[in-house]
Amino acid sequence: xxxxxxxxxxxxxxxxxxxLAASGLSLIYGLMDVLNFAHGLFMTxxxxxxxxxxxxxxxxxxxxxxxxxxxxxxxxxxxLAAGITELVLIRPLYGKPISQILITIGLDLAVVGxxxxxxxxxxxQIPVPLWLxxxxxxxxxxxxxxxxxxxxxxxxxLLGLEWFLSRTRYGxxxxxxxxxxxxVRALGIDVGRAFTLVFVIGGAMAGLAGILYTIVFTGDLVSxxxxxxxxxxxxxVVVIGGLGSIRGSAVAALVxxxxxxxxxxxxxxxxxxxxxxxxxxxxxxxxxxxxxxxxLFGRVA
Amino acid sequence: xTNAIEINDLHVTIAGSHxxxxxxxxxxxxxxxxxxxxxxxxxxxxxxxxxxLVASSGQIKVFDHEVSSWPTHRIVRLxxxxxxxxxxxxxxxxxxxxxxxxxxxxxxxxxxxxxxxxELKKRGRQRAGTLSGGQQQMLSIARALLNNRPLLLxxxxxxxxxxxxxxxxxGVLERAAEHSTVLLVEQNLSVVKRLAQRIVVLDHGxxxxxxEARDLDDPTLVRQLLGVTGAA
Lengths: 301, 232
Description:
The complex is a heterodimer of chains A (301) and B (232).
Chain A: H1 2-32, H2 39-56, H3 63-90, H4 97-119, E1 124-125, H5 130-133, E2 135-138, E3 141-144, H6 145-167, H7 169-186, H8 191-217, E4 221-222, H9 226-241, H10 246-271, H11 276-291
Antiparallel strand pairs in A: 1-4, 2-3
Chain B: E1 3-14, E2 17-28, E3 32-36, H1 43-50, E4 57-62, E5 65-66, H2 72-76, E6 80-83, H3 95-102, H4 110-116, H5 118-122, H6 133-145, E7 151-155, H7 163-176, E8 181-185, H8 189-195, E9 198-203, E10 206-212, H9 219-226
Parallel strand pairs in B: 3-8, 3-9, 6-7, 7-8
Antiparallel strand pairs in B: 1-2, 1-4, 4-5, 9-10
Helix pairs in contact in B: 3-6
């Protein structure tokens, strides 16, 4: 029971990060039909932006302040990178899906290469406050405090995103655009602005996911390829949850992460096959695609 | 009097099919002009081309602005309300959200719209996808009327609706036409006769007749142009 509780907390924390990574990807595809393979890059750039903030600002600010500023920096860095990508590279290529895929893959490869050139391929350590490393005693087990940071971050973003999409005019435009982009235009609305906004929001969430993943799961180490490994699971979550559905992404992220944690430990731990957790998510994807091709909460194609 | 729309030698090709083959027509300001024709002759495509929703060649002027190369939202902001053929309400949004999305500028006429369609006020929180066909058509027309647009493009408002409801919508469009120019695509001849002053008949992507709505009183002409009897 104790192990199950630890795995559950860890799974929910991982699910929160998957949600942050996937929801932007889902909105971007749902609204613009853009398969954004540079989304992993936004996670990586967010983590590096956070590293730069945490290491360049004076340490006299204190570790708690520095990590808060690093998280804000990661979020802004991801959003900025995504906004520039949409305006410069994606905008001229709307309606050209193959070109979009190629350019986003190319961008990812090029910038990851630049990061390796600039920062080296060795992982870099972000200084974090002691509290994040210490555990909290719950139900007879010790849960790392970093898990609560990820869960809290995911929950705040989910609530914020739900509020934005349901209460603001731009949120309504985005929901309507996911459903019928042409009719939104026919109401006199410039969908291009909504496209840029969605890219910025998606990139900001990816940046946040990047630094939270660093703090919770990589031992505070930032590396150039970490976003790409997260991107695979983000795509699995998006497809299972349903393209364009935020709630779908949230539910699917939790299901995928918990399944991954449980199978890694209960099956992989006994068999010595650690990758069984990753494989289980792909099998889940295959089952969902077979039974419900549009995902759990997706629109009818 | 300036014209609301002037189209000259309009061509549209979709997926290899040459849908519009040199359409030229004028919609004078004021009143209702109806586009008629058999299924698949390019009536809906003509409206979509005016709005920039399909790629086209030729000249399209709206209120004297050459709009052929404009993006849709810019054309619509000239003052166009659009009621599409399949209503195209946003099914995942509530009635209120559908209307909020259509708001443009300061002159939003909720009182006017709710007096025409009190049902929509009662169902403000209901998802549009759960409305009946008639209620969805109310919402689609309400979106177009919300901002007091000087030009309305209305595509088959009677499609799939019961005769009683069709009569109610015709009444609403009749009132709208008192202050807006209406370009109406419609197959229901009784609706056209009630609303329109002018008609344009399309066949095989070309204009084959321009005239007054009273031309529809000639059963021979109706049978010749539309392949139906004038009693519809």
